[in-house]
Amino acid sequence: MATETLNSPDQTLAGLYPGFLAALLAGDRRECEALTEQCLGARVPILALYQQLFQRALYQVGEEWQYNRISVGNERLATAIVEGLLNRLYPRVIAPHRRGRRIIVGSVEGELHQVGAKMVCDVFEMHGWEALYLGADTPTAELLRTVLDLHPDAVGLSLSVYAHLGTLLDALARLRCAHPDLPVLIGGQGLRQVGATLSTDPKVHYTANLDTLERFVTSLH
Ligand code: B12
User: Fold this and answer.
1) Are the C-beta atoms of residues 70 and 100 closer than 8 Å to each other?
2) 154 phi, psi to nearest 5 deg
3) Smaller CB count within 10 Å for the chain: N or C?
4) Domains of the chain, first to last
């Protein structure tokens, strides 16, 4: 009897990663799409795809940029490709059952990084929430106004650049003043060292990655 070796999702992702990174750095959108399809065909879960392929590759793109091995143009193209992939995957992300709950997510004022925040929205959508992304560089005043208008069940704030920490703290204080009980999730690379101890407010939750976030979302049900 012929034996077939089935790769685990982790093995599939590890095997495809070098090709994906090379295609991303070359700006080859079609190859990135093809490799993503291959992962889906191998039943790789979306969260694993996001973290072990897209996020891992973008972190590497960041290093290549940091050490001047690629141009800003390469970096932007790579990000645009990943954002395109997220858009393509979006129909697969939306859960058919809706929970009648809403989260508003924004990257803090001055913060131009938005891919992580979009992934966070997708995790909520997968669990039947309506997740509204306000975009990069969300002015705190507009965030507050939108919360008043749309009455979300939670707010998410993303911070990639540590220098924007003061803006996040200001947003947290203003949100808390206007909405004393509103759960607020915070995350992003800028919080890596300080996120877990940033706030003593029991309704402010720091989450470092999508797996922990998923457990947190499930606990809200
Ligand atoms: C693409 C990119 C850009 C693009 C962003 C475009 C876009 N559409 O987003 C542009 C060109 C605008 C940019 C600009 C800059 N960038 Co930049 N950028 C990157 C890069 C290469 C990828 C970012 C990304 O998408 N990562 C992938 C996502 C999926 O990962 P993530 O953001 O960490 O998100 C995950 C978790 O953190 C978490 N998470 C994130 N947000 C949230 C929110 C909540 C609520 C929760 C629960 C979880 C959560 O979940 C996500 C999924 O696991 C990174 C490299 C890197 N290491 O990420 C540098 C990087 C983030 N950039 C950096 C820097 C320094 C800059 C600039 C200051 C450069 C400059 N001198 O101009 C500017 C700052 C602009 C600004 N005002 O914000 C540094 C930041 C260092 C730091 N932590 O302080 C990095 C790390 C590069 C590096 N190696 O030095 N950048």
Assistant:
1) no
2) -160, 160
3) N
4) 9-93 (1.10.1240.10), 102-219 (3.40.50.280)
Token couple for 149: 């208008």
End-to-end CA distance of the chain: 47
Which residue's CA is the nearest one to ligand 1's atom 35? Answer: 116
* Residue 123 Cα to ligand 1 middle (Å): 19
Q: What is the pLDDT of residues 158-169, one digit of tens each?
A: 999 999 999 999
Mutate to test the pocket of ligand 1, among 21, 79, 113, 204 (most ligand atoms within 8 A of CB): 113
pLDDT value at residue 220: 81
Residue 28: exposed, middle, or buried by beta-carbon count in 10 A (0-12, 13-18, 19+)? Answer: middle
Residues in the chain with pLDDT values less than 50: 1-4
Which pLDDT value is given to residue 5? Answer: 58
DSSP type of residue 205: E
> Distance between CA 65 and CA 119 in Å, rounded?
22
Encoding tokens for residue 138? 């969300």
Measured CA to CA in angstroms, residue 197 lies from 151, 200, 205 at distances of 27, 7, 10
pLDDT of 197 reads 93
190 lines ligand 1 (CB under 6 A): yes
- Nearest CA, atom 48, ligand 1: 187
